[in-house]
Amino acid sequence: MAAMPVRLNVLFNALLFVPLLISSGYSNPERDMGIYTELPAHLSEVDVIVAGGGTAGCVFASRLSDAHPELSILIIERGSNNDDDAAVDNPLFWLTNVMTASSRMLIYHGADEPQIGNRAVDIFTGSVLGGGSSINCMAYSRAQSGAMDEWRIPGWGAKDLWPYMKKIETYNDKSGSPDIHGYDGPLQITGNGAWGPTRLQDEVLKAAAGQGYPEAVDLQDMDTVNAFQRCHRYIDSQGKRQNAAHAYLHPRLKDGKHPNLHVLTQHHVLRALIEGGKAVGVEIVRNTDASGTRSGGSSTDKTTVGARKMVAVTAGNFGSPQILERSGVGDSEVLAQAGIETAVDLPGVGGNLQDHLGFFTSYLSGLPSNETYNGIINGSVSLHDMLERHDKKIGWTAYEVTSRLRPSDSEVHRMGRKFEAAWKEDFGRDPTKTAAVLATYGGYYSPNLPTNLSNELFSVAGFVAYPRSRGSIHVTGPSFSDAPRLVTGYLNDESGFDTQLMVWMYKKQREMIRRMPTYRGEYCPDHPSFPEGSDAACVTVDGPVPEDAPDIKYTAGDDKAIEAWCRKVVASHSHSVGTCKMGSQQEGGVLDEHLNVHGVQGLKVVDLSIAPSTVQSNSANLAFTIGEKAADIVSGEFLGEANRI
Ligand SMILES: Cc1cc2nc3c(=O)[nH]c(=O)nc-3n(C[C@H](O)[C@H](O)[C@H](O)COP(=O)(O)OP(=O)(O)OC[C@H]3O[C@@H](n4cnc5c(N)ncnc54)[C@H](O)[C@@H]3O)c2cc1C
Question: What are the residue boundaries of the Glucose-methanol-choline oxidoreductase N-terminal domain, all occurrences included (predicted)?
Fold first, then answer.
């Protein structure tokens, strides 16, 4: 998902002031034991430090604490505790979590990039206990099996990861199969469009079927492609968000059986301390930043915490490479420029940044206001009131119908020789590989918020599922006041593949949407500026085109307009991976398959940064899975160690 526009943020701030003072009513009223905002003296040295209390970090630390009660484990998280927080527990509040001013978010500001019109892209991440899983829009989406096999990392193929993907979930959809899904895991998955606007979902599915994309029985079976489905969600039967902290961490902190598990919130991990080639602890600073932006807000008082056995860096795809670089682990040239002494020259750190890049576009809709969430955007409905009167809509996630798509052979051919060559290389061998995802929202979501949202609008997101564009993130100095340099690399691939795929997605979704019964035209600010007289020009209408209407005829000028628009609007869909990838050093790898940082003992990375490439799905599922798998790896290593003694 992309950043919310600032005007919208201001509005949400006003709406949120009151509700966030009240409890969610969801959490166990007993206080968590073991959560601190100041480091207690008895935790100045522990066995395992988990640097980042996000999605993978919470899963990893929790499972490890089960397997090894003899180890003291300390999670250090820059954000706050997420327990009893209404904006975390209640799904529709996720919209408020993408506010620039929200302290639950950490925004990485990109550099100006010439290929996208010298624009700087902002990328949002979660910064609260539970990380992205506490603030995201809860779409349940699993990796395609071929994606993990393609990594060619021993122990990380589809058949290796599938058991963990089942272990994390309780799949509450009767049409699912136990061969494919899990039924007794900590995360409740609520199925097939529950908690959402049914009419919109029905219309999208019918229109998609008319375009040759049927409704899938199970879009998350890890192989299905060229189909749509109502979104499954990380929500329980009461309509409450499922996140890594509530599903894994808080129950253990409250059950009295995990005195070994501790959490320090509101502290940054600055760097790992490396002595004699081994990680022996971390340096931390208090986070006094309430705004959620990256720069400023940290105190300068540094403290160290010792790690007798291991430091696991779990600060996410943007945080983890920075911790490594500040520790002296990274490309020696980058480190020299940042004034950091090199401990291990690892050029792969911070590179290989891959993200689901794409667009948001919007339409006028004949749906009445009670069938969209727009009331909370235009201020006619308050989230506070909805919460008070137990309005079921508070359980909506906004993300309604999703898909996995590939252009047909003839479409690939029509996209030109360069595109076709890239297609054959990346997609030719695996017919289940997802190229593109189109998803429909139950209301307005786009960077061009109208000042007066009088029409009912809804938005469509389109993202490139397996992009060729590559970016990077690197530190520019040794301290937190040195903002990192983030280059997204969006649309920088020489083949033009990602741009062409965005153009294809734009055309596909238009043909679908204009056939929906409640379609009332395009919302112009969120569409390309087509040349005068274009067949593709935005219109305002009373109803849809007939199902058998001819498709829009795009001229070369129209295609240029769509391409220009793609460069103007391309945005992050917040699923980035790859900045500390597994692989050999020769291939730019940072970690071995046991997640050890090359060249340093006792230092691992456990989050989405370890993935060599995107897995063609929204990314939370992979983060949960990585947390589970990493806990097994480390647990086995500690058992082996104990047996050796
Ligand atoms: C707005 C938004 C919507 C999304 N929607 C979906 C969705 O619907 N479905 C889906 O599958 N995925 C979604 N995602 C993506 C998904 O939530 C994330 O990719 C995933 O949660 C990342 O997991 P992680 O463990 O790698 O990192 P994170 O969960 O981001 O965890 C990293 C943690 O480290 C902390 N941290 C960072 N730096 C430091 C430091 N120096 N010291 C201490 N702590 C630090 C952070 O505060 C954070 O808590 C969304 C993401 C966003 C931002």
Answer: 47-357
